[in-house]
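Figure-free illustration: sequence to structure, shown twice.
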Amino acid sequence: MENKEALVCTFISIFISLQFLFWRFLRPRFNARQTRHLDPPSHTMTAESYESEFLSYMIRKSKLVNKALDEAVPLCQPPVLKIREAMRYTLLSGGKRIRPMLCLAACELVGGKESTAMPAACAIEMIHASSLIQDDLPCMDDDSLRRGKPTNHKVFGENIAILAVDAFIALAIKHTVESTSLDVHPRRVLRAVLEMAKGIGTEGLVAGQAADLAGEGMSFDNNEVGLKHLEFIHVHKTAALLEAAAVMGGIVGGGSDEEIESLRSYARCVGLMFQVVDDVLDVTKSSEELGKTAGKDLISEKLTYPKVMGVEKSREYADKLNREAREHLKTFDPDKAAPLLFLADYVVNRQN
């Protein structure tokens, strides 16, 4: 399949899948299983117990997300069995689950329940999985290693990998609409789906990927110009999906417009910070430590933060973004915001 045809298929799958919005009003009431969630740790705790409590929180959330993802993409009969196998290969291959965790924590922060946001959290992880498959294709970054395993197209072939990307986008929309509790107003469900679509298309991932491809081999005499181009890439390619995760959680959780915009600003800082750290790790860690090909950006002559501002300045910039992210949560109760505050610290300090 030609690259243009693959991209067209991706967009078509988005619009076709919007028909599932109407199913929401015809299906029986969704009886969501109420899952007990961890209350955010008190700010009076010591730093050590706070960290331990948050790591337990992350493990609990990850297990719940993994179970929900496993149930959302079951194996089925041919002829789509191979595509489902390819989807599950990437979706269930581990990962930090930062995006779904962000979605769940945002929902709880504005007073919603974990179970209310779980469909949206799974949907955003499906979109993330689709972006990883697409990013690794020979026509994109041409990578052969992801999370310590062969990339999707190396195992299933390029044709199945591309179809898995299309299927993920359709399923993400369908799952959000079908599985979100009927207690959430239909307008909020529609708003959440539109936020996800925005994060995928030419206002988000697609724009960032296009700019990333265009920037390969480019040199900028002025570092400020190079930094602006780099910021455009990662505000769209990386931050947009984290932004969508937080905003979707805030929307289905019943957050006010002001709360949702604060979550959006927080997540944008975290998204950029994630990429800055990712770029630094790419030039300071081994492939074994990262679980993916180290130094790939350097070989591909990609524009990166270390390339524009150096490793130390990049680390300083990540710290600055962490401070800004925390600033955007100051209007919330500090105890309730604790998981998101620690999540930002986790992202800036991660080692793979």
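We now fold a second protein in the same way, so the two outputs can be compared directly.
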Amino acid sequence: MVGLKPTDIPPSAAVKFLSAGTAGCIADLCTFPLDTAKVRLQIQGESKASKTGKNVKYKGVFGTIATMVRMEGPTSLYNGLVAGLQRQMSFASIRIGLYDSVKQLYTPKGSDNTSIFTRLLAGCTTGAMAVTCAQPTDVVKVRFQAHIRVVGGPKKYNGTVDAYRTIAREEGVKGLWKGTLPNITRNAIVNCGELVTYDLIKEALLKYHLMTDNFPCHFVAAFGAGFCATVVASPVDVVKTRYMNSKPGQYKNALNCMLTMVVKEGPTAFYKGFMPSFLRLGSWNVVMFVSFEQLKRLMVLAQVAWESPF
């Protein structure tokens, strides 16, 4: 047995909520450089470019990371980390932590099995709820990650709080919710790709006694979930990143952003940064789901120990 053993007491909604947010933060800490590389590759080819970054060319995941370290220093790989952690505590807590509760809500009373449609509906619901609440943190995170700043060069924002203030002042409060629609679309797809796939793979592995409910099972299910999510969500993810990073007036809306990409760069532009997306989403899913399962068990054990008489 690897890790904590499954408990007889099911985790409460509050335990799942807190565990999901914490696990999301752990996963972000481990995979943030890959996410930053993904953003840089996705925005490469945009018509707008800063004087600093217009001649920068990124090639591949590790080439992008090496270029960033050489030009901007190693800390550039973690630009936007604070906003990223803020995002996970609000975002992952809702979309992952509330998934089981919403799934049970949608499951007809007396039904022994949960249909795939019900799982998909639950995934879309929690994904949309999470984006609505956490969109400002995502906008700030992407702005930090996309900004090219050579060593010693001027900063675009003086910290995370300043970024929120600056965007709200220059673009209005609605600027903090820029790209909400493509982000809701993306995260509905990602949520279904991640949670439903993880749910189904894990259920199948346990049902047919291929694995027991421990680390290897969680690892396999999470890896499969990461790959499925990357394949289906990459086009929407690229559009979301481009639109959220754009200057006011550059694109009329997310649809215009998508059409501009097709005309200027061709349909392959929708899969720019696919490899870092998969490396990031695959590894993020593995770290997150493994941490999530262990944190749930740890919190249940802590709760039992707290409630037990001394």
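Summary for the second example: The CA atoms of residues 37 and 65 lie 6 Å apart.
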